[in-house]
Amino acid sequence: MLLQQKLFIKLSILLLLNTVFFLALLPADGPADNLPDQVRRIPMLGVEVPDEQKQHLKQGLAKLQTSLDQLKKSKDSRVQALIPDVEIYHRAVRCALEYQEFFHEREIGKGLELLKQGQRRADQLLKGEAPWTRQTGLVVRGYVSKIDNTVQPYGLVIPDSYTFSGKSRYRCDLWFHGRGERLSEVNFISQQQRSRGQYTPADTIVLHPYGRYSNAFKFAGEVDVLEALESTKQRYRIDDNRISVRGFSMGGAACWQFAVHYADRWFAANPGAGFSETPLFLKVFQKETLKPTWYEKKLWQLYDCPGYALNLYQCPTIAYSGELDSQKQAADVMEEALKRVGIDMVHIIGPKMGHRIHADSKRIIEAKMDSLAKVGRQTVPHTVHLVAYTLKYNRMNWMTLDSMGEEWKQGQIDARLVPNNRVKIKTQNVTGFTLKMHAGESPFDMTRPVMIQLDGTDYQVPGPLSDRSWEVSFHKTNGSWHVGAAILKPGQLVKRHNLQGPIDDAFMDSFIFVSPTGKSASATVEKWVQSEMKHAIVHWRQQFRGDARVMKDTQITDQEIASSNLVLWGDPESNQLIKKIINKLPIQWNREEIVVGQKHFPAAHHAPILIFPNPLNPSKYVVLNSGFTYREYAYLNNARQVPMLPDWAIIDLRTPAGSQYPGKVVDADFFGEQWQLK
C-alpha cells in the first residue's frame, strides 16, 4: 500500500510538472502579452526538418516547379487562369521549408502530401484537364493578388446540388476563421481539404478566405477577402443579392468589420464573439492600460465598429455570444451602439456556453439566415444611411461620399426617397457626394425633374434617362451646396477614395519597395533605412504572407510609376526618386535639416515617414521609409492591429526602433483635405 502511495505521488508530481510545462508553451493572453520589451515571436519558429525529409520536400518542390514553368509557357488562357490553383501548393510548402514554419513533425507529412496534390493538378492541367473545377464538396483554389503578385489560397464548400452548367445562381456565405498563430499556408490548405466548418447551409457555396494569416482580416487581409470573393464569383455562379458574412472569435471581429464597412454588399451578417473595437476590448480582455497618442485614438476609427453602427440599417445582423464567454463584450458594445441610433440588435446567447456555438443557438441562427437569404439584399432601398470616418469606406447603395470637411471626424449622409420625385437628404461633415442608380434601378418618373431637399434647401435636378439610370453630384463651396461635382484646378490635390491615407493604405493595393543605390548623407540615417527596409520586407512575408516586390531606384520605369504605389527608402542623397520629387512634397529635406512648416529637425539623426500622392503620378501613392505601421507588439492581440502613424511623422533615430515604433516619434499629423500641412 505504501509503495502504491509513493508511486501515485510521483506520478501526480510528474503530471503536474507536465501540465505546467504544457501551459508554458501555450500562447499567452492577458498581462503576459502586455510587455513591449518581451514580445514572443509570431508565428513561432517551427521544428527543424530532418535531412531525409528535407530532401524529399526539395525534390517535390523542384519537380512541381518544373511543371509550373511548363504551364506558364502555355498560350491557352484557360490554363493560365488555373495556374494559381496549382501554385498555391508549391508556395505553401516552399514558405514552410524556407522560413521554418512546420510547427510540428506531423506537418512535414502534410507538406509532402500537398506537393503530391499540387503535382497531380499540374499533371492534369498539362493534359488540358482540370477536374477540381467541376468538383463538389471541399475544394481549395487560388488567385494572384494585386497587392504583391503572390498567389493566395482560399477554401470552398461547393454544395452537392451545384450544377456546373445552367443559369441558376447560388447563395454564398463568407466564413472568417478564428485566430491561429500556426495557421501557415500548409495548415490552412490541409484544414480546408478536410473540414467543412461551422455552417454548411443547403444549396450554398461557403467561401473560407485565408485572409493572409492571422490579422483579423484587416489591411491586406481585408483585400484578400474581397479578391477571393471576386475570384469565386468569376468561377462559380454566385447570386450578388445573396452573399453574407459570418465568423466566430477573431472571425467574429472580421464579420463586424465587414458588416459595418461594406453593409450594402450582404444580405446578412452573423458575427460571433471576437472584438468590435480596440480600447474597451483591450482594457477588458487584455487587462491593458492604454496610453494612445491623439492621432492613434483617431486612427482607431478606421476599424472600430461602434461609430459605424448606423450602417447596419442596410445589413440585417444576427449576433451570437456564449453566455459565459468574455468575448461577449464585442456584441454587448455593438448592442449599445445600435441602441443609440434606434436599432434593437438580435443577440442570440448560448446558455451556460463559453467560447463555442451552442447547438440550439446554431439552429435558431440558421433558420433566421435562411429566411433572410430568401429575401436577399435590397439594391435600391428607399432609405439609406452612410456613416464614415474616412473616404476609404465611402459607399452605401446608391450613395457615394466624395469628400469630407475633415477626415477622422464622423461624417454622415441620410437620404430618403419620398413620393412625387423627391429626395430628402441631411449631411454632417460632408462636402461632396454623388447619388447614382444604374440602368433599370431608378424609381423616379422619367418625364419630370427630381426635387432634392438638401440640408433644408431645395434643388431641382434632371430626372432619370430612358434606361432608368440616374446620377447627380453635389459639392459644397463656402458653406453652400451646388449641383455638380467639384471642379479641380490643374494639379490641385484633394483627398478622395483610395487616395486619402494614412500610411497603411498604401499596402492595400499594388506596391513596390524602392531601395536606394546611393549612400545617405548621414551614417545614422543610412543604418536606420537599411534596418527598417529589411524589417518591412521580413514582416510583410511573416505577417501578411506575401513576397514584397523590391526594385532599385535605377530600375523604376514609367510602367511601375503608373501601376503601383512606390515605397521609397533612403534620403534625397541616396535614392534618386526621393531626390526627384522632394521639392514637390509638403515636407522639405536636405543634407542639414528636415523642415515641417515652422519646425526644423537636424537631418543627421532624424528621418521623415509620410504618405502623399506621387508627384510623378498623383493617382498613386508615394511613401517614404515605412512598411505597414503596427509592429511586433501588436501581433500579440488582433485588436492592437491598427494604424500606429497618421499621414506623416518625424522619427528621432537616436532612440532605437522597437516593437511598437520605428524610433522616437517627435512629431506626427494628418495632412489636410487638400493634402496640405495643417
Automatic annotation (TrEMBL):
Gene3D superfamilies: alpha/beta hydrolase. Residues 224-366 form the Peptidase S9 prolyl oligopeptidase catalytic domain. One of its GO terms (biological process) is proteolysis. One of its GO terms (molecular function) is serine-type peptidase activity. Keywords: Signal. The keyword Signal applies. The keyword Signal applies. This is Prolyl oligopeptidase family protein. It comes from Gimesia aquarii.
